[in-house]
């Protein structure tokens, strides 16, 4: 098969795969499966395109920034389906990128079909493609980042380091936690610099010994290390600094995009998930240091095949270890946050990258195909295991939808509150805090009928709601997020004591929400 024909072939497969994920995503939405990030992005997109007031801060400081912008492409079709469309076609693009790397090294279609089967049936990849989360962009640029690092090892051309730097910038703006990945690339920069030296020794450890014992080579090593460090890290660091200054200018907080629940959905979600689940999670492989890496190897055995393929390459092995150090660091840095699927699934993508880049070096291809097939089957099985035993409710809910067509944590309550608000008289305005009530706002038919924190009148509306709104949405005492908002039952008591001439009448109530009418 000619190169152009193979490219068209994998492009068609990628498109079919995207449609497959889209069908799954729509089906899951009809079952009632939604995730917090998806609803957060839907609400923010509605504010941008339909809201009133100053929306500049929402447009520029919503995190994750680039996946948020990517959903704009599909909002003309439907706000609700836009995140699903973005993740479905984004995961299709990821498949295309992996296979396009593969076909440059082998003509055997077996490997394309093997990767296709993995993308079709692995629950982690199915979750990435159909759940409407931003993980697809993380995986795309994680893959491109490491691909260009490996290309540099083969070509010794710093152009690939520059491309890696750009990919790292995008990766950080897809998930800011990946900024900590740079910490573990400092020794890797040293390894890269040693690799560029024209020495007779092939092994890095001997190259390092020679470099430090020769003054001329030592100076050359330091110069090259600094040059590569600048090429690889100056753009990410400068981008973060500029973006933090933008946050300081518009929100008076350098870390607004990572610390504010109005900018980042995960700020409260991670706290609430941990406080809710820490006493109920039993009989599961614990998330503690060292065991995190063991979980990776258990649930993603393909990574062992990657280590085997690079067993003779010291610097590539060091590169493969970098994400392990990264995920261990995350557990130490964010001790009260569970490690989500997207930080585990990167190891599956890294394993695929290693396989497709080293496939042409395999000697016993028949045996390798058998082992690869067994590893893929085992990976699919362990993929279900990791999500089934996950401490994250959304991941358990997803598996329940896939296997049993049953939603264990649906948004029916949220939908019922939104439906009541949607049926209020047209001139009625509702005061709500979208730090915790963004799921309700995402199901709102008219975002302009809501008074939200991004608007200049919000603080005035809290002090004197009778001048701005007819209704107030309150978080009940049963709501696990009621302590993270001003609009809770304490607010009602304070408002009644301070405004004897104005009364509040309860018009709608669920377990977690109470809607009051201002009289």
TrEMBL record:
<feature type="transmembrane region" description="Helical">
    <location>
        <begin position="110"/>
        <end position="128"/>
    </location>
</feature>
<feature type="transmembrane region" description="Helical">
    <location>
        <begin position="157"/>
        <end position="173"/>
    </location>
</feature>
<feature type="transmembrane region" description="Helical">
    <location>
        <begin position="134"/>
        <end position="150"/>
    </location>
</feature>
<protein>
    <recommendedName>
        <fullName>Glycosyltransferase RgtA/B/C/D-like domain-containing protein</fullName>
    </recommendedName>
</protein>
<keyword id="KW-0472">Membrane</keyword>
<feature type="transmembrane region" description="Helical">
    <location>
        <begin position="179"/>
        <end position="200"/>
    </location>
</feature>
<feature type="transmembrane region" description="Helical">
    <location>
        <begin position="72"/>
        <end position="98"/>
    </location>
</feature>
<feature type="transmembrane region" description="Helical">
    <location>
        <begin position="7"/>
        <end position="29"/>
    </location>
</feature>
<feature type="transmembrane region" description="Helical">
    <location>
        <begin position="371"/>
        <end position="393"/>
    </location>
</feature>
<keyword id="KW-1133">Transmembrane helix</keyword>
<keyword id="KW-0812">Transmembrane</keyword>
<feature type="transmembrane region" description="Helical">
    <location>
        <begin position="288"/>
        <end position="310"/>
    </location>
</feature>
<feature type="transmembrane region" description="Helical">
    <location>
        <begin position="221"/>
        <end position="243"/>
    </location>
</feature>
<feature type="transmembrane region" description="Helical">
    <location>
        <begin position="342"/>
        <end position="359"/>
    </location>
</feature>
């Amino acid at each position: 098969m000619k190169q152009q024909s193979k490219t068209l072939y994998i492009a068609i497969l990628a498109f079919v795969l995207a449609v497959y994920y889209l069908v799954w995503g729509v089906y899951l939405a009809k079952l009632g499966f939604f995730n917090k990030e998806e609803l957060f992005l839907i609400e923010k997109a509605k504010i941008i395109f339909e809201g009133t007031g100053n929306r500049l801060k929402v447009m520029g400081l919503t995190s994750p920034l680039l996946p948020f912008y990517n959903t704009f492409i599909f909002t003309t079709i439907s706000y609700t389906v836009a995140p699903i469309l973005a993740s479905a076609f984004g995961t299709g693009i990821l498949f295309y990128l992996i296979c396009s790397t593969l076909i440059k090294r082998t003509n055997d279609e077996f490997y394309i079909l093997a990767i296709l089967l993995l993308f079709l049936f692995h629950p982690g990849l199915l979750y990435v493609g159909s759940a409407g989360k931003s993980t697809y962009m993380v995986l795309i640029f994680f893959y491109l980042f490491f691909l260009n690092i490996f290309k540099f090892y083969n070509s010794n051309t710093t152009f690939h380091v520059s491309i890696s730097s750009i990919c790292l910038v995008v990766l950080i703006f897809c998930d800011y936690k990946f900024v900590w990945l740079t910490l573990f690339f400092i020794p890797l920069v040293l390894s890269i610099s040693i690799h560029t030296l024209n020495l007779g020794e092939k092994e890095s450890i001997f190259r390092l010994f020679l470099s430090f014992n020769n003054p001329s080579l030592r100076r050359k090593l330091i110069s090259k290390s600094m040059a590569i460090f600048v090429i690889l890290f100056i753009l990410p660091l400068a981008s973060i600094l500029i973006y933090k200054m933008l946050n300081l200018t518009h929100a008076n907080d350098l870390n607004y995009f990572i610390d504010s629940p109005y900018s980042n959905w995960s700020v409260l979600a991670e706290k609430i998930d941990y406080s809710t689940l820490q006493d109920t999670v039993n009989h599961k492989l614990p998330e503690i240091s060292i065991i995190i890496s063991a979980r990776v190897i258990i649930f993603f055995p393909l990574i062992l095949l990657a280590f085997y393929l690079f067993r003779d390459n010291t610097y590539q092995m060091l590169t493969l270890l970098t994400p392990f150090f990264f995920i261990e660091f995350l557990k130490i840095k964010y001790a009260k946050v569970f490690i989500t699927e997207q930080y585990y699934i990167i190891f599956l993508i890294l394993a695929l990258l290693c396989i497709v880049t080293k496939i042409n070096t395999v000697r016993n291809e028949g045996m390798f195909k058998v082992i690869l097939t067994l590893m893929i089957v085992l990976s699919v099985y362990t993929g279900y295991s990791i999500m089934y035993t996950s401490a994250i409710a959304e991941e358990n809910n997803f598996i329940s939808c896939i296997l049993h067509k049953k939603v264990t944590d649906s948004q029916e309550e949220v939908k019922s509150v939104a439906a009541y608000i949607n049926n209020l008289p047209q001139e009625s305005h509702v005061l709500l805090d979208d730090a915790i009530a963004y799921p309700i706002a995402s199901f709102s038919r008219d975002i302009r009928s809501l008074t939200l924190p991004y608007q200049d009148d919000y603080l005035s509306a809290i002090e004197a709601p009778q001048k701005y709104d007819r209704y107030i949405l309150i978080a009940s005492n049963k709501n696990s997020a009621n302590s993270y908002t001003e609009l809770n039952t304490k607010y009602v008591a304070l408002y009644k004591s301070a405004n004897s001439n104005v009364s509040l009448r309860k018009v709608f109530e669920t377990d977690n929400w109470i809607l009051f009418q201002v009289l």
